[in-house]
Amino acid sequence: MTPELTALTLAALLQVLQFFAYAVAANAQVGPKTAMGPRDTPMHVTGLAGRLHRALSNHFEGLTLFTIAVVVTTLSDQASPFTATCGWVYLAARVAYVPAYALGLSPWRTLIWALGFVATVAMLLAAVL
């Protein structure tokens, strides 16, 4: 497996952990009746649960673009030490992003997000240039 694919796999596993953390926090906030109910009305969570939910949603968005970058890099045989570094930087940024968001660390959350985004764009550019 290429380093880029390894970083992608680990990023997906991070998303699983994020979902678990959010689910625990949200269920503690709304209770089991709401959590297991039909949710005919939207469930609104606040505080830590809300921040974990937003961080998870942000990872879904970022992971889509990162997945495209890894697939393009891998299928076009453009993998290089540079694109591998981009993959690891993206993963490190996503790992750091979760606690930064959960703890409300501003402006660090935004700077960490930007680092991951730049790494993804750099990987895409490396694949086409």
UniProtKB/TrEMBL annotation:
It comes from the Bacteria. SUPFAM superfamilies: MAPEG domain-like. The chain crosses the membrane at residues 110-128. GO terms for cellular component: membrane. The keyword Disulfide bond does not apply. It is found in: Membrane. Keywords: Membrane, Signal, Transmembrane, Transmembrane helix. Gene3D superfamilies: Membrane associated eicosanoid/glutathione metabolism-like domain. It holds the Pfam family MAPEG. PANTHER family: BLR7753 PROTEIN, INNER MEMBRANE PROTEIN. This is Putative MAPEG superfamily protein. The lineage of its organism: Bacteria, Pseudomonadati, Pseudomonadota, Alphaproteobacteria, Rhodobacterales.
